[in-house]
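Budget justification aside, the reviewers requested a transparent look at the raw inputs and outputs of the sequence design task funded under Objective 1. We therefore reproduce one unedited record. The lines immediately below are the C-alpha cells for a 104-residue chain.
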C-alpha cells in the first residue's frame, strides 16, 4: 500500500509536467518553424547519410524505396539493388536514369 509521502511525490511530478496554454503555443510554434526548414518536397523521403540529410525520390527504374548503405556510402533501391551516388547519379543498373535528390 502506498504511503502518503509516495502519493505526494507522484502528485508533484504530475504537476511539473503540466503546461499552461501559452507554453504549449510556444512549443508548437517552435516545432513548426524547425520542421518547416527540414521538410522534404512531396513524393520524397528524408534519408540521413554520414554528413547530410537528403530528400530522395523513388527508384526511377521500379519505383522502389531507396535506403542509404553506409558500408558502400551509396543509395540503394530495396527492390532491384540499383546503386546511386549521393548526388543521385546511377552507378549500377537496372536503373537507367538518375535519382531525384535535394539536400537539406
Amino acid at each position: 500500500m502506498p504511503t502518503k509521502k509516495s502519493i505526494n511525490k507522484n502528485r508533484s511530478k504530475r504537476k511539473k509536467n503540466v503546461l499552461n496554454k501559452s507554453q504549449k503555443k510556444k512549443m508548437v510554434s517552435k516545432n513548426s518553424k524547425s520542421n518547416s526548414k527540414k521538410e522534404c518536397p512531396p513524393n520524397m523521403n528524408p534519408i540521413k547519410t554520414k554528413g547530410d540529410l537528403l530528400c530522395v525520390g523513388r527508384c526511377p527504374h521500379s519505383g522502389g524505396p531507396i535506403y542509404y548503405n553506409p558500408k558502400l556510402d551509396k543509395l540503394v533501391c530495396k527492390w532491384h539493388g540499383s546503386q546511386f551516388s549521393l548526388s543521385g547519379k546511377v552507378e549500377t543498373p537496372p536503373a537507367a536514369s538518375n535519382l531525384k535528390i535535394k539536400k537539406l
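Strands lie at 45-48, 53-56, 66-69, 74-77, 83-84, 90-92, 101-103. Residues 13 and 88 are 50 Å apart (CA to CA). Computational costs for records of this kind are itemized in the attached budget.
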